[in-house]
Write a structure and sequence with these properties.
By secondary structure, the chain is α/β, with parallel strands linked by helices. The protein is built from eight helices and 13 strands. Helix 1 crosses helix 4 and helix 3 crosses helix 5.
Length: 257
Amino acid sequence: MGLKYFGTDGIRGKGFTELSADLAFHLGNALKEALNNNTIVIGLDTRSSSPMLAHMVASGALLAGLDVYFAGVISTPMIAHYSKLKNITGIMITASHNPFEDNGIKVFNKGYKSELPEELIIEDYIINNKLEVSDTYGTFRLTDDVEKEYFNLIDKLDIKESNLKLVYDSANGANYLIANKIFSKYYPNSIQINNKPDGLNINLDAGSTHLNGIIEHIKSNKMDLGFAYDGDGDRVIMVGSDGTVYDGDFIILLTAK
């Protein structure tokens, strides 16, 4: 049996239309049966449709009796890490590097992407309007624990404060808050660009798929190094002081060495 909605990286489609409130609600409602977990954490990027989708996923989950931790605007790696750390379900509302009209729902099972059997159960709820109604509704809590645990992870890297002049491009996306907190702590001479999301400008001539802006900023301001992220913060491109672009393969090699 094939999948109708899930692709290689969750469900994708146009926000408010293909990714409707009804679809998000039924996805959330299916999570208890599909993933056999009583707790979920939800994060979202800065697209105009993301709050609607996030809250509808939460509504469906609450009706099924799941407890919901709502983390607000955070990056996909933060959701994946917290989901794995706490052995819970993670939901990220994002369409990554795509324009604001698009959106998506990524499902993590204890830190790992959902698998076919789980996705088939979720699609059954969406397609057939199945409904799980618990005798006891779940609880809804706003949380900053996802950020705290992410900082605990960063602290373990034992990064030293540096005078390097860095510029980082947040693509007006999901990591614009956490990136500022991390870079400001360890690299006080760093500068953030594309950090004023308005719901419509995520990835717009910015981030890892539009490097001209950060290259020009590095050269004109004589910066040492630059990092460009995508809309959900799980992709990064590095740019040298002379404008040379270093891709993910190079970054992996550098990290390994």
